[in-house]
User: What shape does this take?
Amino acid sequence: MKFLFIVQGEGRGHMTQAIAFSNLLGKQGHELVGVIIGKSKRRAIPEFFAREIAAPIHEVESPNFACDKDEKKILIGKTIRKNLAKASTFWRSLKQIDEVVKSEQPDVILNFYDLLGGIYNGIFRPKAQYWVIGHQYLSYHPNFKFAPSKGLNKFFFKLNTRLTAIGATEKLALSSYKLDSTEHITVVPPLLRTEVKSLTATTGDFFLTYIVNSGYSEEVITFAKLNPNLQIKAYWDKKDAAETENPLPNLSMHRVHDKNYLRDMAACKGLVSTAGFESICEAMYLGKPVMVIPVKGQYEQACNAIDTVYSGAGIASDNFDFSKLEYLIQSQFATENGMKVWTNSWPETLKQICSKTKMTEPDYILTQSFS
Assistant: This one.
């Protein structure tokens, strides 16, 4: 089957998931005909994505979060106002998506949680099957643990998730642990790239950190300055940053680079990160303890933090105090790790999903009539 991806460009997680899924498709004889990715003025699309995805990339203007002046907290009201003001720009993006769909004629459009993907499917009604994939769709599961909500954060999270999935025939809910699927979603393992699975984990003398919003770098620098005995390697995707910066003897800041980041993940003694699903799962696979700091104002990250603790991966914090993870490590904390068996079930899972899709509509109706 021919697949077309639509990928949210915020953070590295959706991009690495797309790379992993494209590799699964290739191994089973499917074709990735193109990738549509949302771009942002705040961050650059990493070089590794263009190198690894092995398909034509089409960049479009897509809705993004708006931060406070310190580039830390997500402001929901400002996000809504800013994106509504760009409605005409996003309409042009929808028409760009339609041009790609008409040109490539995919059998399946797979959306990695980009809002425009759901709106496109709802308005343009392409002939292709429309699938969605992401950890956020686990919120449809009765066992999903919602974080306490301030104001309308939970409402907007659930609304955004539903909008991305308008008309979806398949909702693939990524989970770090095994759960039964429901009539609404298919629960699937995390999408980890081959490079992660080929790594050999060791225990080095440094902490690894990933900063999704550049404003959090000040917290990391402040902590490193007060704790010169702790070594820290930090990765971020700030657009104008140098490849490597060394603000302190015990702290280095690096532009996101897939191979270097994973190499350091395998060698670190623990991961301190904003609460993005993908980095947590990579750390779990490699048996690394995790401390997550949910991005303020981003409700889904608050839910991810609860999930991190529940899954046995580590702890949650409201700041980049690396000493908390150091204390956890000193207490002989061991991560729960059924991750390898769970992630290795992906090939069979994909076969089952694709076999359902290959059933023609008349056959499906006939099957349903006699079931």
Residues 70 and 215 are 5 Å apart (CA to CA). The domain at 2-193+343-369 is CATH 3.40.50.2000 (Rossmann fold). Confidence is low (pLDDT under 50) at residues 360-371.
